[in-house]
Amino acid sequence: MAKRKRISEENTKQQTGKRQKKEIVLPPVITSDAPVHRQTKWTNKQRTLIFSSRGISFRTRHLMLDLRTLMPHSKAEPKMDRKDKLFIINEVCEMKNCNKCLYFEGKKKQDVYLWASNVPKGPSAKFLVENIHTMSELKLTGNCLRGSRPLLSFDKAFDSEPHWLLLKELFTQIFGTPNHHPKSQPFTDHVFTFSIQDNRVWFRNYQILAEDGSLAEIGPRFVLNPIRIFAGSFGGATLYQNPHYVSPNEYRRALRRSQASKYNNRVEARMSVQLRKPEMTYRMDPTDEVFQTITAESVKNSQ
């Protein structure tokens, strides 16, 4: 019995020693010349698949590439045909070993929709993407380390209603880089901000300046107009439907109607002026000709 106890104690010591060897504790101050030790244990294995359908614009393509560079835990996939059904994306995510997905869907070469889904059980949300600005634009002066882990900042309005709480958790799992990810850097130098304004989600990316801690916008920036939230992945029962949402087709139709009404009002105003215009501007008094004297010059001019 004593031998068995000694053997078990030695085994436990060896196991604890192995665990201690695997764990790496980073010092509080790291010089730039010192090599960065990486943690080999990776517990939160979140992977996000980012791809699009055929027919998207160049601006949407640049936005998708910017998100891939900012999210080291993302994976790429060739464009999907627009005729394929959305349920195929669940199989693609399973093949790529991804449990989150961002899918950009282009329609009519001008409208962009974004699907954010938790694969394979859901939930999923569909958004209309508006006001896209990419990182390559000159007015965005910020910069950050490639592969660094971002801070996620959410507006207080996300805690006001249940559907905003659900979107907050979905965005946290999709955009949050897992700790000790092999492709990530052990630094935090930029912030992802999600704010709610006008029933829309505004996304911004800011750099944390080392001098004074102020923020400089890096990009990209875009606005997500929520349409529906589904219980399943890319389908299922509708959990929430935005009552304030107006589709791009209806918005363009309303613009055309407003322009047509302006033309109709102009034509009606012209017709009303012609109807109200009298045939004679003023009446002549026949007695005024009595006082006109006929001279020889007036007779010559009349001839």
UniProtKB/TrEMBL annotation:
Alphabetized InterPro entries for the sequence: Brix (IPR007109), BRX1 (IPR026532)
Region (Disordered): 1-22
Cellular component GO terms held in the UniProt record: nucleolus
Biological process annotations from GO: ribosomal large subunit assembly; rRNA processing
Keywords: Nucleus, Ribosome biogenesis
Pfam families cross-referenced by the UniProt entry: Brix
GO molecular function: rRNA binding
Brix domain location: 46-235
Major localisation: nucleus
Location(s), subcellular: Nucleus, Nucleolus
Highest rank taxon of the organism: Eukaryota
Transmembrane segments: none
Function field: Required for biogenesis of the 60S ribosomal subunit.
Protein family per UniProt: Belongs to the BRX1 family.
PANTHER family tied to this protein: RIBOSOME BIOGENESIS PROTEIN BRIX, RIBOSOME BIOGENESIS PROTEIN BRX1 HOMOLOG
Name of the protein in question: Ribosome biogenesis protein BRX1 homolog
